[in-house]
Amino acid sequence: MHLLIFLLIGALAGWLAGVVMKGRGFGVVINMVVGVIGAFFGGWLLPRLGIGFGGGDVGLFITAFIGAVILLAIIGLIKKA
């Protein structure tokens, strides 16, 4: 059940990141996938930077959103090159 919630929160965060990063998104489905990957990426990166948002679904959403925004920015830079 936790995995399903994780995937749903990651997908929602990816969609929102695509909305925020206008022009760098790749469509709804790909942005959702980036959100799920961003949840893993943010969960790995943010604690190493000393940034934490607490536990629970809200903390996971914020972490996934930040991770997805970072990934969309990186992918956008690579795509332009």
TrEMBL record:
Belongs to the UPF0410 family. Pfam families: Transgly_assoc. It is a multi-pass membrane protein. Signal peptide: none annotated. It comes from the Bacteria. Coiled coil: none annotated. The chain crosses the membrane at residues 28-46, 58-78. The lineage of its organism: Bacteria, Pseudomonadati, Pseudomonadota, Gammaproteobacteria, Lysobacterales. Keywords: Cell membrane, Membrane, Transmembrane, Transmembrane helix. This is GlsB/YeaQ/YmgE family stress response membrane protein. Its main location: membrane. One of its GO terms (cellular component) is plasma membrane.
